[in-house]
Amino acid sequence: MQRSSGTPLYKKVFEELKSKIDSGLYKMGDLLPSENELCKMYFTTRPTVRQALNDLSNLGYIVRQHGKGSIVSEPKNGLGILSLKGSTAGVGKHNLKTAIITKPIKQPWSEAFEFELTPEEKEAGAIYLSRLRYVDGLPTLFEETYISNIDLPRFTLHNLEKNSLFDTLKNYHDVEVKEGEQKIWAIEASKELADMFNIKPKKPVLHMKRRLKTNKKNLFIYSFLYCNTQDFFIQDYF
Amino acid sequence: MQRSSGTPLYKKVFEELKSKIDSGLYKMGDLLPSENELCKMYFTTRPTVRQALNDLSNLGYIVRQHGKGSIVSEPKNGLGILSLKGSTAGVGKHNLKTAIITKPIKQPWSEAFEFELTPEEKEAGAIYLSRLRYVDGLPTLFEETYISNIDLPRFTLHNLEKNSLFDTLKNYHDVEVKEGEQKIWAIEASKELADMFNIKPKKPVLHMKRRLKTNKKNLFIYSFLYCNTQDFFIQDYF
DNA sequence: TACATGAGCCTGTATATACAAGAAAAGGCT
DNA sequence: AGCCTTTTCTTGTATATACAGGCTCATGTA
Prior knowledge:
The structure is a homodimer.
Chain A: H1 9-22, H2 35-42, H3 46-58, E1 62-65, E2 69-72, E3 96-107, H4 119-124, E4 126-135, E5 138-148, H5 165-173, E6 177-188, H6 191-197, E7 204-214, E8 220-227, E9 234-237
Antiparallel strand pairs in A: 1-2, 3-4, 4-5, 5-8, 6-7, 7-8
Helix pairs in contact in A: 1-3, 2-3
The structure holds a DNA duplex.
């Protein structure tokens, strides 16, 4: 089944399996259809479905076991922020609410921005927003995000309270995150952070700085995160 | 070139390219030989070399660019503990010294061990060791490790000060880490930790709990890490 | 019943090939 | 010289196929 539309076939297989896992149709511990069965279902051959399964495996959705099959893996609970999927996807059963502290605004890059910028990025300026996320009603995650303002028309109008930032970028602007780097510290809460998280100043807080590459050249996403790990923790799978 | 020995050909290609990057023969920004060139070098075909290149790409060693080639990626500095490679490999230029606090000893699992154990693991008991790592002479990382004591003869005799734990497991016991999960908190330093790190009690410290799966069934590695992020930080790529 | 054996499923590794699409250099035109 | 087109090299996607090796279960034997 050659691909007819623009999206590759293996990606279609990947997306459909992923959504079936996300929606709970395939539950943890279940065996996915075997590679040969998937071949028949999608009228394609093993290397193609294997590419989809490899991607799922890399994201931790499945574990592949020689001689047995592809086993749907542990659901991602905790705050799976270290994964690529945008926080909302990683929170599992916990109730997650997002409050926009600063609506998306266009602004030039700060003189002392922590990451190196390409000339094109500097020229284009940044879109800045900040959000506070509540898990089970508790303020847990403060996030400042800078996005290179390249080819993102009317971006500042989006409603990011309901929708994940990553989903918005993907669905409306064809921007997909591909890879990234992150740095992690434990720091003392400043007065402002302590107020926001409703904790005492100087209490330990998790601090992360992330730089995410996308499929668009020169379009990067920078995010500075502060996480209150009194009641929750950050988790990831690799 | 069918594989002659036990190791798959794509893995050989992977290992050789990886070591050439690690040793600095291919430097950051360099272009690796093209897929077709690698095919000729190893007398094989593109799917095979692509498998090796994909693995390198997943580990962040290279970035593949459509129409251009495979570009050697940023060297991993910081304390790349979040990657799979064992701390020693991730520290880059920093001088890293390891002090064994507790030599490897066999012991039963604690009653209240934080992770779920398989019956086989419980039966086998654990090997415990703890180490304190110095970066540039500063005590930075305290690590408690539990390994399921399965098929690891004379393991307690190894000298782990010079060699990475992961290298030892791989070279002497054919144990390779395949995947894992980790949880991260910011906590206050206990008195013991503060003494070890030479900081004041209650200062923020990074705490991680990791569970690593290996290629051997029932053999897991559990490690509990405490990291002083006053002077350094944890970094990873994905 | 208990235990080995083998058949049949599964994924892992590998070859051979084809065309599409991005990127860059070579070449020709104005 | 400066610009555009073409060529060529690169990776991306896909088909078709083969055998190796792990896992499970049914079958047959002691």
